[in-house]
Amino acid sequence: MDASTQSTELTGSFTAAAWDRIAPIMAEIEALPLLTRLSDGTLPPEIFRHYILQDALYLKHYARCLAIVAAKAPDNAQVLRFLGSAQKAITVEQGLHAGFLTQFGITAADVTSAEPSPTCFAYTNFLLATAYHRSYAVALSAILPCFWIYWHVGEAIKNRPVIEGNAFQAWINTYGDPQFAAGAREVIALTDIAARAASPVERTEMTDVFVRASQYEWMFWDSAWRLETWPV
Fold this sequence. Notes:
This protein has about 230 residues and is mainly alpha-helical. Helices cover about 80% and strands about 0% of the residues. It has 12 helices and no strands. The protein has helices at about 5-10, 15-20, 25-30, 35-40, 45-70, 75-105, 110-115, 120-135, 135-160, 170-175, 180-195, 200-225. Helix 5 runs parallel beside helix 8, helix 6 packs antiparallel against helix 11 and helix 9 (about 135-160) packs across helix 12. The protein starts with a helix and ends in a 7-residue tail after the last helix. The mean pLDDT is about 90.
């Protein structure tokens, strides 16, 4: 089951409505040159190095966001389920990063000394602030796009013809992997559970942060394509 099918099966749910809201953003994401050229193996190595290094910085903060969101869960069942799905995603991504950092000549010292790009800095601070200061339901909605959009993109690229010798095939395999999909589906389900218990005002806030995080997902890939650095 791909991410688009999942949204169809959720018809009438909070997450289905939220996914529909970001349809224009998803169209822009699917057209990003970074993803197009990653899928056909023609992405310039310096752009991918920039992207994967920024993604490593992002994941460090994202993992902390997941821990904060888990701590706010209303019952032990949701705490454990959320931690399990979060662990799946982090484990998968850490393995991917380790391989690519080596493949593209990025050392541990490079990661330690790296500075987040303006977009990476803004996105991670948005997520951390939302996780710390907003309710469980709202915070969960903010971290969901990273799971869901990567699943959707990975599935879409995975279904294209395999390009022999594609240096980025491991990336495609990771986000098209059933283990990553399972983690994403679980977070979608938890978000719908949280939405059912939320007030109308809170549900509006959930939609707002879901849309904003989705915009940041587009910005993150676009900033890597542009090799974004601080202008001054």
